[in-house]
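Notebook B, p. 112. Complex prediction, attempt 2.
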Amino acid sequence: MLSPVTLMVNGSPVAVPAGTTVAVAVVAAGQACRTSVSGEPRGPLCGMGTCFECRVAINGKPHCRSCQILCEPGMEVRTD
Amino acid sequence: MSSAASSGAYDVAVVGAGIVGAACACEFARRGLRVVVVDTEVVGGGATAAGMGHIVAMDDSEAQFALTRYSQQLWQELRAELPEDVEYEQCGTIWVAADEQEMAEVWRKWDYYRERGVPVEVLDGQSLKRLEPNLRDGMAGGLLVKEDAVLYPPCAARFLMDRAQKNGATLRLGASVAEIGQGRVRLADGLKGDALKDDALEIARLEISAQIIVNATGAGAADLTPGIEIKKRKGHLVITDRYPGFLRHQLVELGYLKSAHSVSSYSVAFNVQPRPTGQVLIGSSRQYGAEHKEVDHGILMRMLQRARQYMPGLGPKSALRTWTGFRAATPDKLPLIGPWPGDKSVFLATGHEGLGITASLGTARILVDQITGVRPAIPIEPYLPSRAAKEHVHA
């Protein structure tokens, strides 16, 4: 296994192999990526940056497509 | 009135199911008249769907103020009955002054509104920054107009049309109108579907009879009533993703009037609106002589640059959609509401430029008041279509 990377998802640490996308880390943490206007949980659908369903806030920046971004050590991911 | 109508005929045919047509239908039906509404497409699909939905008291002229403030008060009366999807929010407008020269305009406006009973507050640079932290530093101040509101226009039009139908109005969608006049609405292809399947007469399929025909077709109104001076004035809007808390009031630059009054081919102004979802609606542009609906990227870029000058934080925000629409502009910046001198059966309810959503309710009231012989709450003369005819005589 590649050297693990530890990042924070909603304040809890998650360890994933290097090269893992943020979308996978969020799923591994058992979280939905975001909540729709009508209050439904949403997660990665297309996995290629087109559907915008997997948006999360990364290091305070909202609406990042988590399927297109690789995990980095100490990254702060929020889904709420 | 209905006693004089022949069997099967309507008292009123409203052509155009935008927010102005829907408001008129609602008001006619409420007063017991037999109403039919005809539109080629859907309820609230034209300029109604393209506009911002800013319910604003405008002080451009005394007549414009009278109609917009009256209409705003009618929206306030209706507020408790509006369904949630109309998203009526009394967020207020802040007219933003970039420098001391514009601050003088803030004081002039403050005096104007205050004298007429509109709740307003002058903001210095610091209090403006406190209310809207994402405006750029160094603004001179602004004027907060507290009762201005925002809503979602297509749902507001749908609500008014539903209410008209509950009071007996008939809605005929998918019917393209070729001609109006002399108590008849002539359809290009007849009514689609089974609207009149029991009527064997071809003439009934192609015509709707009504004593009164209201032309509420917005920027296209001159197609049905040749001779009225309506020009299409194209606008662009952008909506962002959700950024809750980024913006709290409708913000408009004080240079806005310069843009709205510009007679050059196009102009842009900073005009942004918070939506209840946290999205930001970004405008505005004004452009004469553009007939096509496509987004003009040069104008769009200038509009967004203007927005970024006022709110630098908009720069990195992501935009979800961009679209255009056509305002119905008149030469004297006032709408056309009332009888058309060219045909006794034809009445106009158009020419609202960027104020159709606000003015829809007041327009409907004063139009139906005129027709039913009720004294209108505000003077109607400035909006009468005959004013244009008079100007021609003296021209």
